[in-house]
Design brief:
The chain is built from seven helices and ten strands. It has 289 residues and is of the alpha+beta class. The protein folds into two domains: 77 residues, Immunoglobulin-like; 128 residues, no CATH class. The strands form three sheets. It has a four-stranded antiparallel sheet with strand order 1-3-6-5, with no helix packed on it. The radius of gyration is 37 Å and the shape is elongated.
C-alpha cells in the first residue's frame, strides 16, 4: 500500500514538472548556425596605412563574435556586427598583422600588411633632394647669381676692374669648393635605407650638409650684398628635406596655380636663372627685365 502511494506521488510530480517546462529548453532560441568562415565588407585591403582606423561589416553570421588573438601593430575590436581595425605608427619599412575571430564553434583568421607612409614620404624627399642639389651644383647657380652682384659693384663705381676680376675669381673658387664638398656629402643618399629610424638619421645628416652649404654660400655673398644696391640674398636655413636655394624657396616667392613666381623684390632672380639656362616658370615681368 505504501509502495503504491509513492508511485502515484512520483508520477504526479513528473507530470507537474513537464507541465511547467522544468525539464525542457523548448522556450530558448537556438544559436544561429555558424558558417565555416566569416567575410568582411568591404574586404580588408591588402595594405592599410599606418596610424589609421577602419570599420568593416561582419557578413554571414548574426551571433556573437570575439577576437581570440591578434598579432602585429594593430588593435581589433568587435561591436554587434561591426569590426574595427586600428593600426599603430610603425618604424619598419612595412608591417604585417593577423587576427582570429571566433564565431560559434568555428574560427576565421584574417591578415594584411601596413604601409609606413611617413618613411616613404621622407625617402621620396631624399631622392628629390639629391636630384635638385646636383642640378644646383652642376649649373653653378650660386655663382651665377652672385656674379651679377659683383658686377653691380663695378658698375656703381665701387671697385675698379682689377678688383672686379679678383672678386669674381675668389667667389667662384669658394663656391666651387663648397659645391664639391656638398656633392661628396650626397653619396650618403646612395646607401640602402632601412627602417624609419635609419631614414631619420640620414635626413638629419643630409640637412646638416645642406646647412653647411648654405652657410658657405652666404659667407661668399655677404661682402657684396651690402653695396650692390640689389635685394639682400642671405639664404635662410630651414627644416625641409628637399633642397632649394632660390626657385621654390618661400623666402623669395610663392607657387601660384602650379607655377613659381618670384616676389617683386626678387624678380631679378628669375631673370638671372633664365639668363643662365635654369628652367624657371615665372612672371612675364621677369623676362622683360
Amino acid at each position: 500500500m505504501i509502495m503504491a502511494t509513492r508511485t502515484v506521488l512520483v508520477a504526479a510530480l513528473c507530470a507537474s514538472l513537464t507541465a511547467c517546462g522544468g525539464g525542457s529548453n523548448s522556450n530558448t532560441s537556438p544559436s544561429p548556425a555558424s558558417p565555416d568562415s566569416l567575410s568582411l565588407s568591404p574586404a580588408i585591403p591588402s595594405v592599410i596605412d599606418e596610424s589609421s582606423e577602419a570599420t568593416f561589416n561582419i557578413i554571414g553570421y548574426d551571433g556573437e563574435t570575439r577576437v581570440l588573438e591578434t598579432s602585429g601593430p594593430v588593435s581589433v575590436t568587435t561591436s554587434n556586427n561591426n569590426l574595427t581595425i586600428t593600426s599603430e605608427d610603425i618604424s619598419a619599412k612595412e608591417g604585417s598583422f593577423t587576427f582570429t575571430l571566433s564565431h560559434g564553434n568555428k574560427k576565421t583568421t584574417f591578415s594584411g600588411k601596413i604601409s609606413n607612409n611617413s618613411r616613404d614620404s621622407k625617402n621620396s624627399a631624399l631622392d628629390g633632394s639629391k636630384e635638385e642639389s646636383l642640378i644646383i651644383i652642376d649649373n653653378e647657380e650660386p655663382y651665377k647669381v652672385i656674379l651679377r652682384y659683383i658686377e653691380q659693384e663695378y658698375l656703381l663705381g665701387t671697385v675698379d676692374e682689377s678688383t672686379l676680376t679678383e672678386n669674381i675669381e675668389n667667389a667662384h673658387e669658394k663656391l666651387i669648393s663648397a659645391g664639391e664638398k656638398y656633392r661628396k656629402s650626397l653619396t650618403l643618399l646612395d646607401v640602402s635605407r632601412g627602417d624609419e629610424d635609419h631614414v631619420d638619421a640620414i635626413v638629419d645628416e643630409h640637412k646638416s650638409a645642406q646647412n653647411a652649404y648654405i652657410d658657405a654660400i652666404n659667407s661668399v655673398y655677404e661682402p657684396y650684398i651690402q653695396d650692390a644696391g640689389l635685394p639682400e640674398l642671405v639664404i635662410e636655413k630651414n627644416d625641409r628635406v628637399d633642397f632649394v636655394l632660390f626657385e621654390n624657396n618661400p623666402q623669395f616667392g610663392e607657387n601660384e596655380n602650379g607655377a613659381w613666381h618670384f616676389s617683386e623684390d626678387y624678380l631679378i632672380l628669375g631673370y638671372l636663372l633664365e639668363r643662365f639656362g635654369r628652367t624657371c616658370e615665372s612672371t612675364e615681368q621677369q623676362g622683360a627685365m
